[in-house]
Design goal:
Number of strands: 0
Strand content: under 5%
Helix content: over 70%
Order of helices and strands: HHHHHHHHHHHHHHHHHHHHHHHHHHH
Distance between the termini: 93 Å
Amino acid sequence: MCLHIILNLSIYGIYVQEAVSNCLPHLVTSPALKEDVPAIVTKLMKQLLTAEKYGDRKGAAYGIAGIVKGLGILALKQLDIMSKLTDAIQEKKNYKYREGALFAFEMLCLKLGRLFEPYIVHVLPHLLMCFGDSSQYVRAAADDTAKLIMSKLSAHGVKLVLPSLLAALQDDNWRTKAGSVELLGAMAYCAPKQLSSCLPSIVPKLIEVLSDSHMRVQTAGAEALRVIGSVIRNPEIQAIVPVLLSALQDPSNKTSACLQTLLDTKFVHFIDAPSLALIMPVVQRAFLDRSTETRKMAAQIIGNMYSLTDQKDLLPYLPNIIPGLKQSLLDPVPEMAAQITGNMYSLTDQKDLLPYLPNIIPGLKQSLLDPVPEVGGRKMAAPIIGNMYSLTDQKDLLPYLPNIIPGLKQSLLDPVPEMAAHIIGNMYSLTDQKDLLPYLPNIIPGLKQSLLDPVPEGEAKCAAS
């Protein structure tokens, strides 16, 4: 009965072969077939590696995977399957051996799922070499295998695989490097949760290889980014993927136009992790641009992103964005500092910026001490400080108060009543914890000045009262 079913594996039809593969796990556990299993596996292994027809070899891969699923993961070692496949994928003379081994790895991953993950690390080096194989059939099989492996990876599997792939980018062999790039691109087929965790590490590396000395590696990098763009679910971002990719490939000339396109886009749908992976490198590069207008657009986009995406997806990019925010806070152009400060105010609705306070506080202090009274930077810096302070339970802001007080004091004496009103209102929120008491000698003169405001309807007088 079992042998008759196995014969159907030679019928090239994915539904037939899949059905046979699903039956085998139940049949091979029968005591009556226990002694026949090694011989069946040997026959299927020979068919996998030497059969002339594509359907025969593909069917053999389905059969081996079904048998291993029925016997358990230990069967890979007991029946010497992995060592035979490893030898086959390194066979240089006959492409069928390499293609057949890839078929088997693909089906084993499909049938065993996460149980096969420990073996993936050992398969990766051979899979990388197959991407640059001289046979187009082997390259196609490698591509299919990579997509399926990546789609089945768990969070732990991604952690196992990612370091090896990133390390392979430093290899001197351009074929290995190109294969690693293609595998990194195939990670776009990971489950959404795994995808959001790995893309912040992958995309910067892919951008680096766009300037590689070998043209094939550059092409592989561009194609990998295109694959990541193809899995974007947000229709608004999907429509401008070519613009984003052009900005990543030619940042010097295309960044400004890309930012303007993003600002002109009306977002209706949620921004997913693949969208962020292409947008954030462009924004990060924009903060380093000499043009104030480009940096201002980047600041606007950062402020908008926080309300349009899952904050957990945005967090991995903060370490790279903070230096640009800090530098822009000290920008000599007042409008730039005001724009950045205002967008930071929207970011601090959550506690995500608290670990970066040592980098941000100097810029906020500089905004508070801004000598230009009509600029919005000072007006927004005080709410940010008050908002940060109210969000922390551990008084994370206390160590920075000595640096902030001089700016608060000067802003209290601001000739613009609205400015003083903003400062006083936010100082009131700070004093809920009595933390300003040691600094009262510095603050009281400013409060006194606000109370003596000659404008009767002045907001500062009301706030001071």
